[in-house]
Amino acid sequence: MQPIKSFYYFAKLFGLCPFPLDVTTVSNVRMHYIKQLLPTYLALLFYTFCLVSIFWQSGNSSDISNAANWIQFIPNSFAYIFVLIFAIRHRMVMSDILSIFTLCDEKMRSMFGISYTIPNIKMKRFGLLLFNFQFAGCIMFLSDRSILLLKGMNNFPNGFGLEQQFKPLNLGGLSKQNSMTTDKKLNRVTTVGNIKIRPISPLETLHNTREVVEHLQELAAKINDCFGKQAIFSLLSAFICVTVQLYYMLNHIKSGFTNNRTEIYALAACSMLFLHGVEFWALFTSGENVRLKWKNLINYVFFMKSKSNDDEFRSRADDLVSFMTTNPLEFSAYGLFPIDLSVVSGIASSITTYLIVLVQFKISEDQANGDDSLNMGDSNQMQYSTS
């Protein structure tokens, strides 16, 4: 799977060159790696110069707003740098993930007759620039494979012959139905055609399911290894950005939008909140979705066991259920916290706590400034009265 040239040059423009254009063997491997990573190092050096220049021009102002800007800026800087570093280190793991996706797709197509297009090549066009959405995309692909495996197992509910698998398809009167129904029926016909008409035993069904499940679990382990460390920095950066932007919005609302360019700042804050909200939602809902699909898959294997009277089949079904329960498809930020909707409540409570602290600091600062101005006015009045 070689990337297209447009993506290659686009990634190189951003200082990122994770995939070479050719696969020929080079004589000097070290020089080849230096040339490959040189744009990234130059981008990081340029980013460092920008950071130093901004600090140099910041002056000695130390108000709450300026401090909030630096609190927001520094984690974003480190998150950007470390995301690039981890992306470069794990570029081979990402290639393995795409290869295992393709292998899993082929096995599901040959074993269960599932017909669909393979969208894996599209992942490389995003490259490593928006890795959180790529992380969510990997999880969603895994969720799709889980539900497709469940549909494939429905084709062989108890391992009987194909005469009990499908209902007769009524292809007459297709012009009276919408195109979606037509596509579903045609896909159904394709599925029937791709499954070679043969009887399949219950034990063979479990064996095929176990084989695909092992590939899915291998994918989950590699995805966690590839994206887990990056998720820590990116989610931390997004958490701080959301907190600071909400703090700005509260200040704008409190001031009544009377300061200069307040509307522009408020619009920028809303845009940042929207982008990070989409980031949180895409990542956490994808993890929740794959967890629920995996649970449905376990329940269906247990249902297959309950409908069978074969002792060997029931024993192997028990082994498969225990194997899937012990090794679930779960995603985490390098083991610190899970990637699912259970984290959202904790994030919301933490943001609320930090907002309360920032607002209290702002109130204390305003009161201190008010006392200073009041004392200055009293001293001027005393000087005027003595004169």
Give a quick rundown of the structure.
The chain has eleven helices and no strands. With 387 residues, the chain is mainly alpha-helical. It has a domain at 1-57.
Describe this structure in words.
With 387 residues, this protein is an all-alpha fold. The chain has a domain at 1-57. 76% of the residues lie in helices and 0% in strands. It has eleven helices and no strands. It is elongated and about 85 Å long. Mean pLDDT is 65; it is low at 10-24, 60-64, 117-133, 157-177 and 382-387.
Biggest sheet architecture:
none
Assembly of the depicted chains? single chain
Shape: elongated
Percent range for β-strand residues: under 5%
Mean pLDDT: 65
Compute the number of helices: 11
Provide the helix percentage: over 70%
Radius of gyration: 29 Å
Stretches with pLDDT under 50, minimum 5 residues: 10-24, 60-64, 117-133, 157-177, 382-387
Structural class: mainly alpha
The total count of strands amounts to 0
Order of helices and strands: HHHHHHHHHHH
The first-to-last residue Cα distance is: 87 Å
